[in-house]
Amino acid sequence: MTVKKDYVRPLDVKNGRIDMNHGAGGRASMQLIEEVFARAFDNDFLRQGNDGATLPVPAELLEGGRLVMSCDGHIVSPLFFPGGDIGCLAVHGTVNDVAMMGARPLYLSASFILEEGFPLADLKRVVESMAAAAREAGVPVVTGDTKVVEQGKGDGCFIATTGVGVVPRGVAVGGANAKAGDVLIVSGTIGEHGVAVLSQRESLEFETAIVSDTAALHTLVAAMLRVAPPGAVHMLRDPTRGGLGTTLNEIARQSNVGMLIDEATIPMRPQVEAACELLGLDPLYIANEGKLVAAVAPEAADVVLAAMRAHPLGANAARIGSVVADEHRFVQMQTRFGGRRIVDWLSGEPLPRIC
Amino acid sequence: MTVKKDYVRPLDVKNGRIDMNHGAGGRASMQLIEEVFARAFDNDFLRQGNDGATLPVPAELLEGGRLVMSCDGHIVSPLFFPGGDIGCLAVHGTVNDVAMMGARPLYLSASFILEEGFPLADLKRVVESMAAAAREAGVPVVTGDTKVVEQGKGDGCFIATTGVGVVPRGVAVGGANAKAGDVLIVSGTIGEHGVAVLSQRESLEFETAIVSDTAALHTLVAAMLRVAPPGAVHMLRDPTRGGLGTTLNEIARQSNVGMLIDEATIPMRPQVEAACELLGLDPLYIANEGKLVAAVAPEAADVVLAAMRAHPLGANAARIGSVVADEHRFVQMQTRFGGRRIVDWLSGEPLPRIC
User: Fold this and answer.
1) From the list B4, B20, B113, which residue is nearest A73 (CB)?
2) pTM for the complete prediction?
3) CATH number assigned to the domain with residue range B20-167, chosen from the 4 options 3.30.1360.20, 3.30.70.2740, 3.30.470.20, 3.30.1330.10
């Protein structure tokens, strides 16, 4: 049997650009999907070739587990930054949101909104980074969609991802579950993602050795849940947009508690501290993409912390304070100089387009 | 207990506009989510308030069913058109992609990419339309995300939706399953969505009574599967971007078959025919958002067609031809004038930003 070639010639991935035809749903769309997306993401689910994927059901679901679903849009600017790009970020961000529910991430969907004129070489680089991140995480992109908007109506490439996962029976992790007395643990140094992205902004460009911490945290979460007594990990969240300061306020509000953290214990690289000083930014509000904060029952804190430190993504994990009873739901911080200050919500927008 | 107000004043939904703060993940983001999104989509899953939703598992999954996942990005321009808007379209598009797998749609995620300066009144209108469509379809939006890009880097509002559903045990519908001899059925008149959107384009604006056919087709699919002998519905697909002509070519390619359709039997409103003539467009390539095409085993065609016609969304359903053996995978059409022509893939882009 000879296979007929459906396209006259392959895409010019080196010099070509996205044009409106690539979003029209016809032959050009199909060629883009086959030569860029399907080739990179290659898996049995995508190979079904339908407008959706039919997926096997994991054993945990049949044993009393629940489904988890989470989504995230990615608009980071620039698309490529030290330590990562929008492609791997889109995988990590959604894998992490699913993992923060105490779930095992299973499948991803990816929706691309491309701007006319976007270089195919950049698209290929983004898609391959995304595919590598998905493979490394063990969470395949099983279905996708591509749309194209006219030049000036987009910004190169936006990616919206949705993740589906399964929470095993008995796991109950959530933003409303932090309790007074819980120990707050952060999984590592804060502020790297935001600083790495900022360092590439046209208006700012500065020299830094800082690279984004973007990473998939689901195996770290699994390691924590494995050692903790059932129900002892109350809350997990990744402090992305808005940083640790905003995340702690979100949790305080949701769980109706206060927090008291100790500035001196918050892990931070000296270069991040220096960059924040230079730019007049508070590292508490800088985005992270490979860190989590946990509220753990005090009797389980040591064993959970030890498990985190034994994991490559938790080597610098540290206790940073505790959850306290507080009807005002204030997040307070003991400063390095011995004072105490309120860590308020982020209200302004110091860092647009960070993820 | 008195509830403390967290915001100084409510959003000015009448005159306000999206600004970069609404995408920063801080207090302004939370206010937007609570006063616009959560209020409209209101359901128990969103009320969990986490970065994802924990969801119950449907009985069909436990009884040997499989999961289905599908996603779609929506960039339609203009955002509001006769018969619908980007909000309801985003629900219908993804519900339909899930339904075309023979699945019962369960849950939706929604990721919004908003442009700085987008009127809050327009956002509210879009979100309320989306919420109404989700309620009507019985498929809740369980999790979401909002990002904001600078003015000139987006186009008002893009929405990416992902749907999760369940295929009951024994159902095997797919684009690769059309078989020579199958009867091709279309569920109603074609071309309305594309013509309705085009009629609103600044450059074209013309008077038409045509409104978009945007609709959720999952109950129509359920009605078809209910009456058909097991396994008799081989293929279902909604001919959206690229229209019926492109969809039939996709299926021919995927199933490795040919198609022979009869022009005179394809249902079409006279106004759509007139508009297409006026604009020099072929209705076979015009997008639909509330129609499906099915390949059904010949012995089941009558009963399936009858069930479709008994459903409000299938009243104009018609046989339009059949699947034939053809190693070239051509889609051919018997014209009204007695000739035969090849219905080729859409290759150019007559209609950008249609969904």
Assistant:
1) B113
2) 0.96
3) 3.30.1330.10
